[in-house]
Each structure stands twice: as structure tokens, then as C-alpha cells.
Task: structure prediction
Amino acid sequence: MLQRASLMTEGPRLCGNDWVFQQDNAAVHNARLTKEFFQENNITLLDHPACSPDLNPIENIWGWMAREVYKNGHQFQTVDGLHEAIINTWSNGPTSLLETLASSMPKQLFEVINKNGGATHY
Result:
């Protein structure tokens, strides 16, 4: 999956040559093959505690996507139909959502620090 994710082209294209990849440290992300992929491709990882959605803006994007895909109680009859809806939703996502999430990170980090790593209102 990592090889298909276009990290090697999209990371530098979107963020410049000094980009850093963010993921939480869930067990699946710490598998030997995953770690080897990042090392072999010289991908810098952000040091990130496991199970900390307050520090992972992608969690908000997944929530937004799920609400959009299943808007008005929409149900899918086929996997292909669901796949198409997910791709369309991702492709048509407003850049303002990404900008808002990115700009909110300093406040979120500040609150996590003030709560000594405890739960925040995010």
C-alpha cells in the first residue's frame, strides 16, 4: 500500500524537499516492513504518540469523508459503488478544509501540552 500511495512523488510536490510524513504509532504502522519502507526511501517520520487523534488532522478528514459519502443515509449496493463515492469525495474535497485543519494544529498542540497529553476538546 505504501508503494502505491505515491509518497515519493506527492510528498515533495506538495510540501517541498524537506517534507515529513505523519502517522500515529499504531501497531500496524510499526510493522517491520513499514519501517523498512520508510528507511529505504529516506522518508522522515514525525515522532508521534500512538492513539492521539488530537495530533492527527487526518482523523478529521476521515470523519468529513464518512459524513459526505453517507450523506442523507445513502447506502451502497456494491463495493464498486462505495469505492467510486469515496474517490469522488476525496477528489472534490474543499482545500479550505485542509487549510483550516493545518492552521488549527498550533492551537491543538498548545492544548495537548497544557493538558499534559490528556484529552482536549478537539
Remarks:
- The mean pLDDT is 84.
- The chain is about 50% helix and 0% strand.
- Residues 95-114 form the longest helix (20 residues).
